[in-house]
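User: For a benchmark we're assembling, each entry needs the component sequences followed by a predicted structure for the full assembly. Here are entry 17's components. Please fill in the structure.
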Amino acid sequence: MGEPIEIVLNGARRRLDGVSPAMTLLDWLRGPARLTGTKEGCAEGDCGACTVLVDRLPVNACLAVVGQMHGRVIHTVEGLRGADGAPHPVQRALAESDGTQCGFCTPGIVMSAVAFGCGGEEPTPETIHDALAGNLCRCTGYRPIVEAVARCARSPEPLPPAPAVPIDHEARTFDGPTILHAPRALAELLRLRAEHPDAWLLAGGTDLGVRVSHDREVPGRVIHVVGVPELNGLAAHPDRIEIGAATTYQRLLPILTNHVPPFAEMIRRLGSRQIRSMGTIGGNLGTASPIGDTSPVLLALGATLHLASIRGRRAVAIDDFFLGYRETALAPDEVIVSIDMRLPSADEIFHVDKVSKRRDQDISAVLGAYKLGMVDGIVREARLAYGGMAAIPARAPHAEATLAGAPWTEATVERAVAALARDFEPLDDWRASAEYRLMVAGNLLRRLYLRSAGVAAELDAL
Amino acid sequence: MKGGAHTAQRHDSALKHTTGEAIYIDDQPGPTGMLHAALVLSPVAHGRLKRADLAAARAMAGVVDIVVAADVPGANDIAPIMKGEAMFADGLVEYAGQPIAAVVATSLDIARAAARKVIVDIETLPAILTIDEALQKGALLYPPATLSRGDVAKAMAAAPRRLKGELRCGGQEHFYLEGQIAIATPTEDGDLVVHSSTQHPTEVQHIVSRVLGVDYNQVTVMVRRMGGAFGGKESNASWVAAVAALLARRTNRPVKLRLPRGDDMVATGKRHGFLFRYEIGFDEEGRVLALDALLAANGGHSVDLTPGVLGRALTHIDNVYWIPHLRAVGCPCKTNTVSNTAFRGFGGPQGVLPMEDAILRIARVLGRTPEQVRAVNFYGEGRDDETPYGQRVEDNRVRACVEQVTRESNWQARRAEVDTFNRQGGPLRRGLGMFPLKFGISFNVPSMNQAGALVHVYSDGSIRLNHGGTEMGQGLFVKVAQVVAEVFQVDLDRIRVTATSTGEVPNTSPTAASTGSDLNGWAAFEAASTIKARLTAFAAAHFDVPAESVSFRDNHAHLGPPGANRVVEFGELARLAHLGRISLSSTGFYRTPKIHWDPVAMKGRPFFYFSFGAAVAEVAIDTLTGESRVLRADLVQDCGRSLNPAIDLGQIEGAFVQGMGWLTCEELWWDAEGRLRTKGPSTYKIPGSRDVPPIFNARILDNAPAREDTIFRSKAVGEPPLMLATAVWTALKDAIASVADHRLDVDLDAPATPERILMAVERVRAAHSLSRERGEGIMWRTSTP
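Assistant: Structure for entry 17:
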């Protein structure tokens, strides 16, 4: 038998005996734990009704499996009352501002608001909407919710404390119907990967979690990689950033904000805080989705992926990583250890544009990322990469060739736009038609030009 | 006393919502031995169901039972209006997502896994998936309905000006956060108690009884609260409950059926998408002389509530406008898609669109503003005030609403500001739009306009209130409790509202059509007043004072003439009355007066009264991507003398945002095989907090008690403000029109997704550049010549 999963729940240590590590945290809370304040609204990480705090960060309980939660400190809506039994200030504020109607989304909103309060951020429309981007409410129209969140900002009410004795962080294997390995060193991870090439490699679980929670798949074996220190490095150099594959967007965001603001801005739209708390950059690359948002950015910036297996280590350029639909250069026994991302230099134009039906927490219809090396108004080098335009995230070789060596003018841009039609056969689905995608891909290039010419082109600036 | 009528009171469950202690059906501890059910849904849109192979599913450990159409002991019929809508596909599959079978097992995971193991053999048939195809092939659910007045052909021919338009709007997924759910528990003698997340407990009772072949009195249906409904739990809750009931009956164990989001979205009905074609005749001032319109609704594969929805669309085609000669034909198209159903507004939001489209076109051809054209067409006062269906528009407040919203939105200044911005050129454009509203209140079917309540006063003076209305988040329970508090003049917290139950108040109508507080408020008023009269008579006799001198104030009965200072606390009076053997319990009943309706002639007075409103919205669009933002919205909504301004404001804001979603980001997308592919929040995008206009001023029309005898002169508010979002659509059209300096008409179907906006921009640009022979400069950079 495997070892028991232990968590700290609402201030008390809990052992999860006889629970499969692949059970979702939501199912465990609502089932065995009988904590029904946390709701299931969609089971795919998009509505936020199941939001709980994990180590004080908001997380969709539907996407997390309990095997990932070992050693973590979890708060649910039931754990917010004070020692005297009084409701948490956020709970009072939401009720008093008429911020609830049917009430079903409310516990999740409460948890997001508590996380926001604990974070100590300045309450601005930007930060509040960012904090609420992962919570849907169908009744209120949000105005009273936003006001209540603003009122509770920067007033971190103490949450129930974690117990004095911390849970150990040894390498572990949990089993139920699913076996979940949580290695704590790269060598151990690589050995497990070599032994179990078919096991799910689980990082944050924002993609695989959907298969468990929504599609009710029961994986046979899971290797949970986030406990491996080698996958958690994060270092900024003058010209590049080294990012461990298991780095969450949440951890990555401050460094990107400092060094590559357009990338940071895109990450804020890539997913809600709930997604950013768990999702990792390595996971986003590993799933190789044609609509994964980080891939085109890394393609445009230029990045090297460091891969490892028990056979050794190798470096692969991002340009050579995506082979086909959801297919990558990773060998069955290989894992992504880190990403070495080039930073744009001062004489390079770099931008990222994400187009989706809804601004926040929506998958891109088109994502364009561009880096242009400029010398005296001439495009020295162009890297244009798109998501949503093909079966894989891809660069636009014809358009790049049109730009390279040409003066950065409207006429050049028009030629590059025309060349895009030879670069892509876009997806055609519920997010957008192929025709729209191609048109927008071109228009994003035009927008890039307008921006560089100082024309106001930012909708969100209005 | 605290909490009477017209005071701003918080939702009765607000704190329970925020602490997670409010109990929804899935939160209830399951009864011992409860089983879990899952549905097997059709993967194809149209076909002959040859066989369902259940063997592999049955063989799974933990599977207790599987049912198909042949296992239904009563009628396999869940139709709410007409007969013959299958609960489980029987022989014919008519939409992708149609239930074919249900599995019940000891755990939810086993039930769902087993459902996936059922193999269905379906011979695929050609499917009709769109309104256009249905019209082409004459596929209708029932014959078209026509609303007409005057001589359209003659008036059209005589009109100085005429124009034609075509417009489409999509459907809308309710996306209640709590999915459809029911728990059916067998009791004795074959009876059942059903907990159902339903707006219509009585219909659940009827459908469960019909499916099981038992009398209504064997089925008790209860609902304390829903996690949202919006019309989606009017008829659709019934079959979910009936499946659970059937499985409970067969296994003799409690059964829970909770639809996972994906099943919920493919298997349950939505708002009707519409296609409109119209011709409109008008004079040089823009006065409408004749309208000839086709309203084709996508009913889906079965009738469900389509007659009501289409009827309401037809009776709202006029909106606030006097149309002397009119013919509006409503076509209920039958397609191989899920059967569309009630959704907040119930055809009204669709029905008001063509006239707004027409007004923008009329304004353009005449070189007037849309506001001028609207104003010359408003219903008159005392003349030109009869709707095409024969009801006069009385107590018309549309001008008051428009004046207030024009003033408060600072319309004139902002119009100039937006135009100045647009004249600068560049890829971003702004738009300003208005929308005036009239919405008829009452169910279009007169018999549905009735309600019952049951009030108990206990001998400590605490009060228990029950009525036929259901709580879905709209605050009905607190509003009706305020009515009772007002009658007894006791504090609101003395009143406990209890779960809606067919066992307490029978034969109820759905909580729908915005009528919840109108109907149930009056019924509760009647019940409470009956008890109050008894208490008055008792107090007069007991304290030996004239009955006319007994009054209730501030939690006390006051006895004797003013200044006598004889008071008895309400609880004490209740205790004494009980000792005096006075009944402290009463039912109350209400039926809406004055209404009548001939559904064939489409004439009568279907509505007790009208609710009015007006909205102004400002938007910005990106002409490179079609993305849009709503920058500001100003709303004025007539609520009569509001029963609860806090709750009503929440309804106004929430409905507006929901309407905005319908008209902008919410898009239902079916693939070529007729499978809905937007079946979760990852693909179907409802508005998030950032999508709400950063400047959002919602107001209740001041000093506006209802002229009709509504409960405390209040008005209904659930649906009307949803239509105020039409101002967002007119604003988007305005922004797009600016690309061609407002010289061209804009075709913009709803939802106005980035793609539809961009394509509209491109069409306008192309036409504009053509009309100027050739584009000057690069069109995407600037459109100003």
